[in-house]
Amino acid sequence: MTSTRPDPTLQPLLKNHPNLSYEGSKGLVMDGTSLTDIASQHGTPCWVISADTLRHRANTLKDAFKARNLPVHCHFAVKAQDHQACLTVLAQCGFGADVVSGGELRRALAAGIKAQDIVFSGIGKTDEELELAVQHQIGQINVESVEELHRLDALARKMQRRARIAFRVNPDIDAKTHSKITTGRAEDKFGIAHDVIPALYRKTQTEMSGVELVGLAVHLGSQMVTDGPFRKGYERIASLVHTLRADGLRISDIDCGGGLGIPYRDETAPPPSMLAEVIAETLGDLDVQLHIEPGRWLAAPSGVLLARVIDVKDAARRFIIIDAGMNDLVRPAMYDSWHGILPLHTPENMEAGDVVDVVGPICESSDIFARQRHLPPLKKGDLVALLDAGAYGTVMSSTYNSRPLAAQVMIGGGKQAVIRKRQTLDELLAQEAVPDWLLHT
Prior knowledge:
The structure is a single chain. The strands form three sheets. Strands 4, 14, 15, 16, 17, 18, 19, 20 and 21 form a nine-stranded mixed sheet that branches. The protein has helices at residues 10-15, 35-42, 51-67, 84-92, 102-110, 127-136, 146-158, 197-207, 227-246, 272-283, 296-299, 331-335, 425-430, 436-439, and strands spanning 20-22, 28-30, 33-34, 46-50, 72-77, 96-99, 118-120, 140-143, 163-170, 192-193, 211-217, 253-255, 289-292, 303-314, 318-322, 341-343, 354-359, 368-375, 383-386, 407-412, 415-420. The chain folds into two domains: 10-50 and 300-430, Lyase, Ornithine Decarboxylase, Chain A, domain 1 (Beta Barrel); 68-294, TIM Barrel (Alpha-Beta Barrel). It is α/β, with parallel strands linked by helices. One of its GO terms (molecular function) is diaminopimelate decarboxylase activity. It comes from Bombella pluederhausensis.
């Protein structure tokens, strides 16, 4: 939904991004590293992610729960940013992983995250993926349907193992976020209806030998910026816990999911202390092990996407055409999402500027990063940074229009390293094969 509020100018954007600043001739600097230098060395489009920012945000989130004396196990939502280097940073910060596929499970293990610290969520786990999880004896599988429960129980018994599980509850709560990232309404595909849980819980704990049912999980949605939906969802979970215990059933763990939002534009996004407070007030006295699954809040502000202006086209509107496209960052095309855009050179005036549409080169009308945005004057060859691209950026990128995947660079402690080299067109074509029989017809 398009906002009617005026877009924030450069100064408010910088205020919301303390890891970014302008330093004279260096231009835009991220955690002490010149982004212009990175673009010059590695070309564009180019993803940049800061290990320093990622580490700082991880520790800030953990500190919010320590301040409430509320022990939690933190599992990073790998779907937000799955690069091995990023997972390694978070593993060093004591984070486990929340995975939603066998591939993400293998990534987490390869990054040094212990199997016991991995939670496997997701509506469509295949038999092979469930077997992989059982084989590695991961910490928890969040079961999302009765059908999955029976498949898992049978697979585990066949493997002579017992899988540790929780039921993902669909609490029928509207997260009040974008419809495409809301996951806790009755009509959404995720979880088991909350009113089915008590009978199913008893049947599972008393009759199924292939699974060890330890508790409940819930995830309401993503990019949530108010406490109301969190509170309603967790209150429903607390009520379920009381109902189950009144029936003599054991419950030791609650997985609170993720969803904490960030200020992409000018949202009043809450700090982690809000989430800690809500969890403490709704679930803190239940004598259970608590788990959280942050993703976007940690990773998004840690990354930017660098791009170069290909052309400035004057037509019915002024179009700034950049060399990054929706194949690189699909969120604006998919969700109409707003990303801040900053020039890499230091602007002469932080307030004045042209009203432009910033668009990519993809042959789709939806390949638009900004509409009627006030930006400092830009010309061919200038460099820009698209902000808050560290989550749901690289992981959703593609080679649409035969555009090779962009390079990815990590910075930290004054150092930098290419963590994914730019794909060449030859490498892209080498993945394809033409059948011999087609060549000889």
